[in-house]
Each structure stands twice: as structure tokens, then as C-alpha cells.
Inverse folding.
């Protein structure tokens, strides 16, 4: 990612930090994303929650969500192997 792209992502993160309610976040996401993009984000989040429960196979998650096996595998990789821990961090905060 080039320097300008990193700055843009940083600015976007700052914008999210300014939001104070679920309604504000939803309004911002609706302005920021196309309906298809928002659907894709919410699908990944559902896949993440199902994977983290440990109760479902990839095929079962596909059946429950319609997500592709590629998407399910990608979310799984980010849950288990990638160093960012974004999914894990939010899941942990939600369980409090």
C-alpha cells in the first residue's frame, strides 16, 4: 500500500472513531458503501461469528450464509493466521 493509501485508510479509521452510536455507524456505512459492498461486509462478519463458534463446517456456513467457500476460507485465515487480530479483538469485546 502506498503512502497516500495508508493516509486515506488512517483517515477512515479516524472517521469511525468519531461515531458515537450504532445508528451513526449505519448511516456512515450506507453513505460510504454500495448496498452490495455493505452486504459483503455483513456476510463476512456473519461468517466470522459462525467460524468462531466452532460449531459449523465450511459447508454448513456456506449453507447458512450463501458465502463462497473462498470467502469462508479467507475469513478463517484472518481469524487464525494473520497478525492483525481485528476479528478476534472485536469478538472478544462483544463477549464482555
Amino acid at each position: 500500500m502506498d503512502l497516500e493509501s495508508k493516509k486515506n485508510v488512517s483517515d477512515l479509521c479516524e472517521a469511525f472513531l468519531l461515531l458515537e452510536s450504532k445508528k451513526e455507524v449505519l448511516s456512515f456505512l450506507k453513505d460510504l458503501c454500495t448496498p452490495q459492498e455493505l452486504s459483503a461486509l455483513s456476510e463476512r462478519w456473519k461468517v466470522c461469528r459462525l467460524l468462531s463458534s466452532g460449531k459449523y463446517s465450511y459447508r454448513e456456513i456456506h449453507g447458512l450464509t450463501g458465502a463462497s467457500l473462498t470467502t469462508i476460507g479467507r475469513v478463517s485465515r484472518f481469524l487464525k493466521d494473520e497478525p492483525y487480530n481485528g476479528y478476534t479483538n472485536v469478538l472478544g469485546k462483544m463477549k464482555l
Observations:
- The radius of gyration is 15 Å.
- The helical segments are 3-18, 22-32, 35-53, 58-65, 69-80, 86-94.
- The mean pLDDT is 96.
- Residues 54 and 86 are 18 Å apart (CA to CA).
